[in-house]
């Protein structure tokens, strides 16, 4: 899937992403980078609203799993089960969320369970960056339900 395809998918299926003006900068099975401008995500202090920062982080992790599962031929229903978010400093302008693929061993265990049981859980993290500095960290556990393929 190309960044443009993922962006279209997000905007059509997760309307909040369109309202936030989420842009897909990178979308590969190894990494997803999403960005968003300040203005549609602004709070009363003229910084990024924490809910928007959290939403971008969740979207990046979810998108990574979506891209990676699709590339492997899996068709699943992917949902978030739980998450935690930490904020290190205020975000004053355009910001990004970077999600990296889980290591190969965890991914193999996840897909094995998915193939055997039709359900599997995996944790994914995402880092928020503003002006090249880490300003937040997300950890989330996602569940994939149902599978076809690989």
The arrangement of helices and strands along the chain is HHEEHEEHEE
Coarse structural class = alpha+beta
- The gyration radius over C-alpha positions equals 15 Å
Number of helices: 4
Distance between the termini: 17 Å
Output the strand order for the largest sheet.
1-2-4-5-6-3
Share of β-strand residues: 35-45%
Low-confidence stretches: none
Largest sheet: 6 strands, antiparallel
Keywords:
single chain, 150 residues, alpha+beta, six-stranded antiparallel sheet, 35% strand
Secondary-structure map:
Blueprint: H1 3-13, H2 15-19, E1 23-27, E2 31-36, H3 50-71, E3 77-87, E4 95-100, H4 104-117, E5 119-130, E6 133-145
Antiparallel strand pairs: 1-2, 2-4, 3-6, 4-5, 5-6
In short:
The protein is of the alpha+beta class and 150 residues long. It has 4 helices and 6 strands, in the order ααββαββαββ.
Characterise this structure.
The chain is 35% helix and 35% strand. With 150 residues, the chain is of the alpha+beta class. Strands 1-2-4-5-6-3 form a six-stranded antiparallel beta sheet. The longest helix is centred in the middle third of the chain and has 22 residues, at 50-71. The radius of gyration is 15 Å and the shape is globular. The two termini are 17 Å apart.
């Amino acid at each position: 899937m190309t960044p443009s395809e993922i962006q279209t998918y997000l905007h059509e299926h997760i309307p909040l992403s369109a309202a936030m003006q989420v842009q897909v900068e990178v979308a590969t099975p190894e990494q997803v980078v999403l960005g968003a401008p300040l203005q549609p995500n602004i709070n009363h202090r003229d910084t990024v609203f924490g809910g928007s920062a959290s939403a971008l982080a969740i979207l990046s992790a979810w998108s990574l799993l979506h891209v990676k599962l699709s590339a492997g031929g899996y068709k699943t229903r992917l949902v978030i089960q739980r998450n935690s978010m930490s904020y290190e400093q205020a975000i004053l302008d355009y910001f990004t969320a970077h999600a990296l693929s889980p290591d190969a061993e965890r991914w193999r265990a996840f897909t094995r369970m998915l193939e055997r049981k039709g359900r599997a859980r995996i944790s994914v993290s995402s880092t928020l960056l503003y002006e090249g500095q880490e300003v937040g960290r997300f950890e989330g556990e996602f569940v994939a339900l149902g599978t076809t393929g690989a």
